[in-house]
Design goal:
Radius of gyration: 17 Å
Helix content: 25-40%
Shape: globular
Strand order of the largest sheet: 1-2-4-3-5-6-7-8
Order of helices and strands: HEEEHEHEHEHHHHEHEHH
Number of helices: 11
Largest sheet: 8 strands, mixed
Number of strands: 8
Structural class: alpha/beta
Strand content: 15-25%
């Protein structure tokens, strides 16, 4: 694997190698929100009124990752903030067993059905983007439009066009086992070093490192494994949901390298629009908050 592929693989999945478990919750989104609703695989809070917008964070990220956009969105939208159980220091629930991604999709669909949120605008970052694609594939009526923030329909694309799920599985399993074994072994320096790969701004890096330190690595390990072996390439042509895909570029990830990869990833989606966000790493919403806010509010309508 070359340097770019390794860096990009880390960024897309954010596999937060050494994480510190903790007790308690991250601060809620800046806007006033409803009480938390807990399900087997996720918890949900809501704020605002209007057409629904569902925000799904990425691997090991809390709902607080959306703090920069929630207050503005909540002025005219019903904002549904998702958090995966075991991320951000809360109880892992059912996520200590296999089936994390399918469980997240199932819980989301159940919540959408119960609260009559069909046709919602859905925004997913990293693993949350893959979850959004899975939901659009399995429950097309749930997702009126989808914004994906730096994610691919299959991780294995980073290994080259000939890669297969079966070929990736052994490495994915080894990574899962290694990350899970780091549970209870915090390393703040390693967290900070990893965060520097995911974000460019020092304040953003500090946030990401803090989130790493509050995540149950057993959950992130299983979720990462399932992400790595989930291949939606063959389904992209069937997903009629309009997709807006934001991807970062920077000195470390030039457009000449990033654009062909993302273009190939979404070429079969019938209604996909790719948007470059310069001077950003994986956490676009933290590195370019003004640009991201403008993009999300325009997307939500």
């Amino acid at each position: 694997m070359n340097h770019f592929t390794l860096r990009f693989a880390v960024a897309v999945l954010a596999p937060l190698v050494i994480l510190q478990p903790n007790i308690g919750h991250c601060a809620p989104a800046a806007a006033t929100s409803t009480g938390e609703v807990r399900m087997d695989h996720i918890s949900v809070t809501e704020t605002g009124k209007g057409s629904p917008v569902i925000l799904i964070p990425g691997l090991s990220s809390p709902r607080a990752v959306w703090d920069g956009v929630v207050p503005e969105l909540a002025k005219s939208h019903r904002v549904i903030l998702v958090q995966v159980n075991g991320f951000a220091g809360d109880d892992a629930g059912a996520n200590l067993k296999p089936g994390v991604l399918d469980g997240i999709v199932g819980d989301l669909h159940g919540y959408i059905a119960q609260h009559k949120l069909q046709g919602a605008a859905v925004v997913g970052h990293s693993m949350g983007g893959l979850v959004g694609l899975m939901l659009a594939k399995e429950q097309p009526g749930d997702v009126g439009k989808l914004m994906i923030v730096d994610s691919l329909p299959w991780y294995g694309m980073l290994f080259g066009p000939g890669a297969t799920v079966d070929a990736v599985k052994p490495q994915a399993a080894a990574m899962r086992d290694r990350f899970a074994a780091s549970y209870g072994k915090p390393d703040a320096a390693a967290n900070q070093a990893m965060a520097a790969r995911f974000a460019l701004r020092p304040d953003a890096q500090a946030k990401v490192a803090g989130w790493m330190g509050r995540t149950d690595t057993r959950v992130s390990a299983e979720a990462m494994y399932e992400d790595m072996i989930t291949d939606l390439r063959g389904d992209m042509g069937k997903i009629a949901t309009p997709i807006t895909m934001l991807y970062p570029t920077s000195a470390a990830l030039p457009k000449a390298v990033a654009e062909p990869l993302y273009t190939a990833a979404y070429k079969d989606a019938p209604h996909a629009t790719l948007v470059e966000v310069p001077d950003s790493a994986h956490f676009i919403m933290l590195d370019q908050p003004e640009v991201f806010l403008k993009a999300v509010t325009a997307f939500a309508g």
